[in-house]
Amino acid sequence: MPMRSVLCFGDSNTHGQIPGRGPLERFDRHTRWPGVLQSELGASWYVIEEGLSGRTTVHDDPIEGAHKNGRTYLRPCAQSHTVLDLVIIMLGTNDLKVRFNKPASEVAMGIGCLIYDLRELAPGPGGSVPEIMIVAPPPILDDVKEWKSIFAGAPEKSRQLALEFEIMADSLGVHFFNAGSVCSCDAADGFHLNAEAHRALGAALAQEIEAIGWPAQERKS
């Protein structure tokens, strides 16, 4: 059977950074939610992990570097993995850092820019636009430990992301899922997912993907 492909484009919570640890310490492939997703979907799907710690939607990071800009990397990333049947975008947490000073509504606008770029690029089958799913990250906890100054004001804004992302998804006609409906951030640092949360998110997204009305396969893998 021909294989479908899904690109999981996100930040440290897609990369699998372990809560309370550094960016080089991550869960193994099978624990991270894209790996869980692969296991749930089975051999008929190819799940592509593209998570980067500190990635934003559309902003160069003045401290961590311009390469953290998700918009800069999405286009070559999508082209390198073409053909894509589905692109899942789970970003927004890093946009809430004080250095960017953005409300939740503008973070959603950044997500919208990524969707417009994907539609222009059209890396789907036969040069079509792939299915797109926006995933709102779980809200940041009130206690973010030593990250308090960096994420000042972010917990409150993060609780607004799901609504703003859903509004954006509805306006652009793409799929939406609220990760906060099935998992929470870990108390070790307040904004990363633990192993249990990764399992819950991967399993839930598999159900969301299977619920999409996929046409019969005709192309070769």
Automatic annotation (TrEMBL):
Gene Ontology terms, MF aspect: hydrolase activity
InterPro entries in the record: Ester_Hydrolysis_Enzymes, SGNH_hydro, SGNH_hydro_sf
Coiled-coil parts of chain: none
Domain of life of the native organism: Bacteria
Keywords for this protein: Hydrolase
Protein name as it appears in the record: Hydrolase
Family matches, as Pfam families: Lipase_GDSL_2
Domain SGNH hydrolase-type esterase: 8-200
